[in-house]
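A reminder from the course coordinator: this example appears on the midterm review sheet, so study it carefully.

Given structure:
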C-alpha cells in the first residue's frame, strides 16, 4: 500500500515537471511547437507585442529543445522515428517580433493595465536579451513601429508561412492590425496564441476577442478553439 502511494506521488511530480502540463505561457509554447513540428508544419514564429523579449526567448528556447530531439531522432535505428524526423529536422524557423518598442500606443480602451507607454522596452535591449540565448542574426527579425505601418517592412523580409502566431498586443485596434498582417501568413494548421483573449472581462466588444471575431467574418479563415492557458489566454488552430 505504501509503495503504491509513493509511486503515485512520484508519478504526479513527474507529470507536474513536464512542460506539456504547465498552464502558463511556456507550457502553451511547448504544446504549440510540439504540435507544429509533430505535424511537420514548416513555418516561422510571429509575435505581435514583444515588450522585453521574454516571449521570443521562451519560444526560441522551446523550439531549440525540440530541434535537439529531432536531431537525435535522425540517428535512431528505427525507421518510424528517423524518417518522419527527416521531414522537418532541417527546417530552420525564423523569429519575428513586431512592437513599437515605446510602450502601449495611445488608446481609449479603458483598461488601466494597457495605458499609453506601459510595457516600454527599447529594441536595442530586446536584441541584447535575445542574443544571450542564441537568438540573433538571420534567425531574428525585429520590426519597430505601429503594426499598421509594418506591412512594407514585413513584405521586404520575404516572410514565409506561419507555424505559430503569438498575438500579445492586448488592444482591439492593435490586434485587428496584427491579424490583417497575418492574413497571407496563416496556413492550414497554423497556431494562433491570443495572450489576452479574455481581457476586458471577456467582452466580445473589446480587445482581442472583438478583433478575432471581425477578422474571421472578413476572411475565409476559421479559428478552432484549442486550449486555454495563463489567466486570459486562448490558443486556436487555423483552418483555410
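Designed residues:
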Amino acid at each position: 500500500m505504501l509503495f503504491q502511494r509513493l509511486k503515485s506521488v512520484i508519478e504526479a511530480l513527474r507529470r507536474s515537471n513536464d512542460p506539456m502540463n504547465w498552464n502558463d505561457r511556456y507550457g502553451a509554447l511547448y504544446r504549440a511547437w510540439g504540435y507544429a513540428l509533430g505535424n511537420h508544419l514548416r513555418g516561422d514564429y510571429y509575435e505581435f507585442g514583444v515588450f522585453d523579449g521574454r516571449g521570443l526567448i521562451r519560444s526560441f528556447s522551446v523550439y531549440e529543445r525540440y530541434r535537439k530531439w529531432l536531431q537525435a531522432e535522425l540517428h535512431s535505428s528505427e525507421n518510424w522515428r528517423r524518417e518522419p524526423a527527416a521531414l522537418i529536422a532541417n527546417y530552420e524557423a525564423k523569429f519575428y517580433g513586431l512592437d513599437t518598442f515605446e510602450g502601449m500606443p495611445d488608446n481609449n480602451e479603458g483598461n488601466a493595465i494597457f495605458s499609453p507607454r506601459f510595457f516600454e522596452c527599447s529594441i536595442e535591449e530586446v536584441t541584447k536579451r535575445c542574443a544571450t540565448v542564441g537568438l540573433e542574426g538571420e534567425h531574428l527579425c525585429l520590426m519597430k513601429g505601429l503594426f499598421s505601418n509594418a506591412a512594407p517592412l514585413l513584405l521586404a523580409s520575404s516572410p514565409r508561412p506561419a507555424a505559430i502566431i503569438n498575438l500579445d498586443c492586448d488592444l482591439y485596434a492593435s490586434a485587428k492590425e496584427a491579424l490583417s498582417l497575418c492574413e497571407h501568413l496563416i496556413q492550414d494548421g497554423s497556431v494562433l496564441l491570443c495572450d489576452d483573449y479574455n481581457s476586458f472581462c471577456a467582452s466580445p466588444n473589446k480587445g482581442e476577442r472583438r478583433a478575432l471575431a471581425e477578422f474571421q467574418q472578413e476572411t475565409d479563415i476559421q479559428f478552432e478553439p484549442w486550449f486555454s492557458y495563463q489567466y486570459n489566454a486562448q490558443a486556436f488552430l487555423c483552418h483555410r
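Residues 8 and 41 are 36 Å apart (CA to CA). Residues 54-73 form the longest helix (20 residues).
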